């Protein structure tokens, strides 16, 4: 199986990122009604970050370009299925001079899979402060997660290897790499750099959507770190339950961004996680929170 995966034609970084741009370019099929494309080659459950990013894109299409998304709050209700596109319905709850709010319902085969509320603001100046960016090694000095996964492939169950080794449009370079097959109990704190693998178009709304897409990649695993388990653990059931993002500053998703996450609590088969996304110049770009299912099945 590993040899078969390695023998498949290798797509360029530009091709993979172009697929992501197409994936997030939701199609307008009627007023405030959009269709989100399927992930090329995707199987099984839809990645939660994809649903959030497509929902955000649908909402952004319904708001004047001078207002920018500053917060979104999403609840996952059902797993999305890669066999079908996703329909997004946008409800225009409020349109003010400074702010606008939208509700977005993601549907598949007549059933909602996600509800999201998003708020937009006309840019203005104001009082400013922020937490300092953690002092971590530069991304150029770190090994990519793709290479780390390739080195660990013999420890991964064969049925999971195609997904485990799939090249993704977001490149990740962990500061403190996780172990998947034999994790040890560690403090629930994780740091990683990420960026799109190739340059993106100069579209601020797209960059916000790509950051939203990537924000779902590191949170849930943080709550599992103190317990010595991972999503590869054979009796571990995981799923995102809700997800929130506050967009503080504009940033390019094809420049390196530092994602600093921690988990202050877990219990009752749920884990709570927080994240801070920093630009390389130290600006706090976004804050995230997520609660997820971390259930050890008998």
Q: Please, could you describe this protein's structure?
A:
The chain has a single domain (2-123, 139-296), classed as Acyl-CoA thioesterase, double hotdog domain (Porin, Beta Barrel). 19% of the residues lie in helices and 36% in strands. It is built from seven helices and twelve strands. Strands 1-2-4-5-6-3-9-12-11-10-8-7 form a twelve-stranded antiparallel β-sheet. The chain has 298 residues and is an alpha+beta fold. The longest helix has 14 residues, at 48-61. The relative contact order is 0.15.
Offer a few descriptive terms.
single chain, 298 residues, alpha+beta, disordered N terminus, 12 strands, Porin
Topology at a glance:
Blueprint: H1 2-7, H2 13-23, E1 27-30, E2 33-36, H3 48-61, E3 68-76, E4 86-95, E5 99-108, E6 111-121, H4 145-151, H5 161-165, E7 170-174, E8 189-196, H6 204-214, H7 219-222, E9 236-247, E10 257-267, E11 270-279, E12 284-296
Antiparallel strand pairs: 1-2, 2-4, 3-6, 3-9, 4-5, 5-6, 7-8, 8-10, 9-12, 10-11, 11-12
Number of domains: 1
Task: Name the CATH homologous superfamily.
Answer: Acyl-CoA thioesterase, double hotdog domain
Broad structural category: alpha+beta
Low-confidence stretches: 1-7
Label the overall shape.
globular
- How does CATH name the architecture? Beta Barrel
Strand content: 35-45%
Evaluate the radius of gyration.
19 Å
Question: Total number of β-strand segments?
Answer: 12
Oligomer: single chain
Tally of contiguous helical segments: 7
Share in helix: 10-25%
Mean pLDDT comes to: 93
Q: From the 3D structure, determine the CATH topology.
A: Porin
Sheet with the most strands: spatial strand order: 1-2-4-5-6-3-9-12-11-10-8-7
What is the highest CATH level, the class? Mainly Beta
| Main beta-sheet strand count, sense and barrel state | 12 strands, antiparallel
Order of helices and strands: HHEEHEEEEHHEEHHEEEE
Ends distance: 29 Å
